[in-house]
Amino acid sequence: AALKKLGHEVFVASSGGELTKRLEDARIIHIKVNINTKSELNPKLLFCICKLRRFIKEKNVDVIHTHTRVSQVAGEAASRLTGRPHVSTCHGFFRPRLGRRLCGCWGRKAVAISDAVREHLVNDFGLAKSKVSLIHNGIDLEAFARTYSDREKKQIRDETGLRQGPVIGIIARLSSVKGHRFLIKAMNFVTGKIKDAQLLIVGDGKEDAGLKRLTRELGLEGSIVFLRSVPDTARVLAVMDVFVLSSVNEGLGLSILEALCCAKPVVASDVGGIYSVVKDNVTGLLVPPRDPKALAESILRILEDRELAGRLGRDGQKFAREHFSAEDMARRVEAVYKEVMKP
To answer: What is the pTM of this model?
Structure first.
């Protein structure tokens, strides 16, 4: 959407999903391609590549930009078939398998979303530093600028099944890499000191059943609420007193940026590129990964110290707004496009 505001014509190819409505609202054309696979060798990619090749030529597309490992392979193939430059964005960390090292499909330029991801591409995959551009994720600041009244917050609580009492929240896919089980275990310590504290887990994924089972085993059913992914994350952030990202690995942490923009105090694992966003005791609190007790101590510290919570929220919001806007990201991406389009 930010690229479109800069005057560019933008097309998005994907297998579809709940976000296609946002593309429609932004008047961005969506091309449905059957690319819903984790395997770079899936035969369906051949049909996807053929469809992309025709579309790129018909619309005279100037640059191909990919954002997942599978789409990198399709994008690189379409680039070679059409002569259009390919740019890839690396949003996290890949296992340095031989196939990925020999056939990277990174395009003419790779974009890393954090310093840690850039070092990963250079050190683990041998990309030249000059081939990797650092462009942090940006978010639509206006979407997270709204304030919610007490009445609206009560309505959100009622809809999600939350009681009165402080709310700790996490918004992330239910995957082992996000470390939900360590946060659930941390709630044992938190509720031991603040009985009416609750954890709101927002997301979908294959860990769903296991996390609910762990919740029952720890006797925390009354203190933990599971909510499926929501398109409007600002709405659920409105009822959170502390936002937590307990990842064991993370490229940057887009949900942290959203929480910061809503002036929520943040507790996060000190892994991957999170340090680019969370400056310890300045824009949030950093804790060691896989450490429920450390998570609980930082959560309790914020819940019990309103002055600290307010300062972290204000400073975090200021930092996110100054450094992580969608407009700034779009301008930096635009510069990469111009670079790869040079003869």
So the answer is: 0.91
